[in-house]
Each structure stands twice: as C-alpha cells, then as structure tokens.
Predict the 3D structure of the following.
Amino acid sequence: MIPQAFEYERPASLADAIGLLKQHGEGARILAGGHSLLPMMKLRLAAPATLIDISGVSGLNGIRDAGSYLAIGALATHRDVAESDIVRGGCPVLAATAAGVGDLQVRNRGTIGGSVAQADPHADYPAVLLALEGEAIVEGPGGQRTITAADLFTGYLSTSVSDDEIVTELRVPKVSQGAYVKFNRRKADWAIVGVAAVLAGSSARIALTGVAPTPVRAAAAEAAWNGSNAADAASHAGEGLNPPSDTAASGEYRVHLARVLTQRALEQASA
C-alpha cells in the first residue's frame, strides 16, 4: 500500500513545530514514531497534506520523578517507559503496560505520546492513563495547558487536543497497586479488550479499552469493590456497556471479556 502524496516538514524545535501546525492548518498531522499513523496512511484511512516530524525535537523524551507524580516526555518510546527505573519504581503498572505494547520493533520506535494522541479504541495506554487519572500536557500558540485523562478522549480516534497543539508530556501519579491485563489473539495484536485497575485501599479505579470508541470507567465494578471481592466486583464490569461486534469478537463476547479481565486485573493489582 502506498499513501497519498504529502509534504514533509522536520522542525528543529517545539516552537517551530507549533508554527508549522498553525501554517498548514487542519491538513497537517504530527509524526512521532509513526507506528499508528503510517499504517493508516498506507491503507488510505488517513491522508494528511503535511507531515510534521517532531522526532528530532529535543527535550520531549525525558522521564523524571517530579515528586508526587512522574513526568514522561511524549517522545519517550515504549521501550524507554518499560525499562525506566523511575517508572518501574514509581508506577510499575505503566512500565508493565509499555512492555506489552506490540513487538520489539514497535516498542523501539513507537512513542507514548503518539499512542495517546492517536486515541485508538483498542490501545493500551488510554485505559491505563484513565485508571491512573493521569494528565496530558499540550502546547500550542496560546501556550501550555493541562488536560485530564477523563477529558482527553472524546471519540473514535479523537481527543480534545486542538489541531494547533502538540502533546508534550504525560503525567501520572505514583501508585504501587495496579495491573493491566488484555486479551488478544496474538501477542503483538491490539487488545480485543483490556482492563486497567488501580487500587488504593478499599477503593478502585477500573478502566476498559476495546468496548467503546473511547476508554471507559467501569463505575459499577468500582462501586462494588471492597478491597477483597474481585469476583463479585468484576461481575458488574459489563454494566452499561454496549460494545460493537466485528470480525474480532461479538459485542456479547466483549462484555464477557470485560468481566473476566476485570477480575484478573483486580486480583493482580491486590496481590
């Protein structure tokens, strides 16, 4: 497959990248690792007039301990996140999630910011970010702003990041009890359904991927959790869901997976 013709820009700085976005308008797309966008372009599911390659912009790939939270640069690769001692120590569920993204090639090139900005409904990070109640830092002509995970994902492949803004950093709280489990046909495939669970004593935050156009919280399962009743809480994980049916799985099977994987995630997080 060959993508449609496009212009290619490679800015040297974040300011240059933002300027190019403003110059080229809605027809421009940001290119980071490319493992989400380029396949869509080859299938003609995306046809940007201009690609703005920010992979050479410095200062966007660092990972730091900011005290109460971890700050992860948008250009940090999945491998960077998976192998970071800072992430492993401060938010192990995020490191484990990164280690399970795609295959080695994808983890070496794909970026956490690109994955979140792409907002694929079967991606791993969005559900984990939602369960962590993390934040995305974006920057545009009007300066920098913070978007909570709850407000970030707005629809199928859609976010609240404006066309002239760039995701520069993700922030997640430090948590010790968390787990992300997913079901897929092959190891490197997208999740058919995935569940992230983050625990704090007798409270839980549970988010699902693969059951709606955006990641969603399993509110009924969260309310049912009492700190030790994984099976009972998980039985409520399908409430309110109306997932689509496709060649990968029926909607009914996705609801079943939501319950099964929620129990596993709660059990792993509380172990």
About this structure: The two ends are 46 Å apart (CA to CA). The first strand starts at residue 7 and ends at 9. The chain has three domains: 7-53, 63-173, 178-270.
